[in-house]
């Protein structure tokens, strides 16, 4: 590959909403009350698998072609600059306003 780019999924797990019917499963109690998560926090069982599944759904058509992902890192790989611009276009569209360059 001629060009490689690395992107970090900053707070990536916190970008995934927990289904309303499952939020009670994340409940915890403090002196100030009982709370539950509305977004997926780090540390819960299976968050890695859930995040990976979301990445596959979003990027299924470019994973293992011009993109690889591992945990919260994304590697863009291209043989030409033109191909690399496709990786950036797809990545930036998927990230929307949350993407910071």
Automatic annotation (TrEMBL):
Domain of life: Eukaryota
InterPro entries xref list: DNA/RNA_pol_sf, Rev_trsase/Diguanyl_cyclase, RNA-dir_DNA_polymerase, RT_dom
Gene3D superfamilies: 3.30.70.270, HIV Type 1 Reverse Transcriptase, subunit A, domain 1
Domain Reverse transcriptase: 2-88
Protein name per its UniProtKB record: Reverse transcriptase domain-containing protein
Native source species: Taxus chinensis
């Amino acid at each position: 590959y001629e060009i490689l780019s690395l992107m970090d999924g900053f707070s990536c797990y916190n970008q995934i909403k927990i289904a309303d019917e499952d939020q009670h499963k994340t409940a915890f109690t403090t002196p100030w009350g009982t709370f539950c998560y509305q977004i997926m926090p780090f540390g819960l069982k299976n968050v890695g698998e859930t995040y990976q599944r979301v990445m596959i759904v979003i990027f299924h058509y470019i994973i293992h072609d011009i993109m690889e992902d591992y945990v919260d890192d994304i590697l863009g790989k291209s043989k030409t600059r033109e191909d690399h611009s496709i990786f950036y276009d797809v990545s930036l569209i998927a990230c929307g306003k949350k993407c910071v360059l």
